[in-house]
Amino acid sequence: MSRLTVVLSQAPGKHPAKRALEESLVAALLLEPGLEVSVVPNLYDLGPDHTGRLFLESVKGDLVVLSWLYPRAAFWLLDRDGIQGHPGETRLKPPADEEDADDTPTEDRPPAIGPAGTLPDRHIYCLDLRDFNKAEPYVQEVRRIAAECRDRRQAKSAARPAVVQLGLGLMAPEPTQASAFDAQALLAPAGRRWYPVIDYNRCTNCLECLDFCLFGVYGVDSLERILVENQDQCKKGCPACSRVCPQQAIIFPEYKSAAIAGADTGAVGGLKIDLSKLFGGDVADALAMAVSERDRELVNDGREAVGAAVGLPKRQEGKPAGPKDELDKLVDDLDALGL
Question: Which of 83, 85, 94, 313 could form an S-S bond across to 122 if both were Cys, CB 3.0 to 4.6 Å?
Answer without folding.
Answer: 85
